[in-house]
Amino acid sequence: MKMIIAIVHDEDGNGLVNTLNKKGFGVTKLATTGGFLRAGNTTLLVGTEEESAQQVIDIIKEKCMSRKQIVTSPTPATGAAGVYVPYPIEVDVGGATIFVVDVERFEKI
Fold first, then answer.
1. Tens digit of pLDDT at every position of the chain (109 positions)
2. Are 24 and 59 in contact (CB under 8 A)?
3. Residue 97 φ/ψ region, left for φ over 0, alpha for ψ in the -120 to 50 degree band, beta for the rest
4. Where are the domains of the chain?
5. What value, to the nearest 5°, has the Cα angle with vertex 72 and ends 68 and 78?
6. What is the pTM of this model?
7. Is 61 helix (H, G, I), strand (E, B) or coil?
8. CATH architecture entry for 2-67+94-102
9. Which of 8, 101, 106, 108 lies 20 to 30 Å from 88 when distance is taken between CA atoms?
């Protein structure tokens, strides 16, 4: 058995969970925060048999495409201590970070 831990962008989380459920995979969804922009993430836990792990990964790849987004990032203004001026920057969002780990024991009670 494998445990797939997928960290995805919040915007991709619900659609991914729905697709995985429709394909028969049970998913535990956790709201998490992190990354460069301290933006909301969704961490998904999917327990599956080893032969189905690649199918789960393929679904994640399909639903969680990386894309560009303009965000406002505060940067210090020159000459004024403690004053911040918003500055728009383009960043990559989306995609997924996936961990696949062996499960030594699984019990459903």
1. 999 999 998 888 999 999 999 999 999 999 887 765 566 789 999 999 999 999 999 999 999 887 776 667 655 555 555 666 677 776 666 689 999 999 999 888 9
2. no
3. beta
4. 2-67+94-102
5. 130
6. 0.75
7. helix
8. 2-Layer Sandwich (3.30)
9. 8
Residue indicated by tokens 């535990």: 28
Alpha-carbon distance 26 to 106, whole Å? 14
Distance CA(94)–CA(64), nearest Å, equals: 6
Helix (H, G, I), strand (E, B) or coil at 63: helix
Cβ atoms of 41 and 32 within 8 Å: the answer is yes
Supply 2's token pair.
Answer: 């494998």
Structure token digits, residue 99: 């961990």
Cβ contacts of residue 22 below 8 Å, gap of 6+? none
The DSSP code for 35 is T
User: Where do the DSSP E strands lie in 38-83?
Assistant: 39-48, 66-76
* Residue carrying structure tokens 């925060």: 33
Tokens 């429709």 label which residue?
22
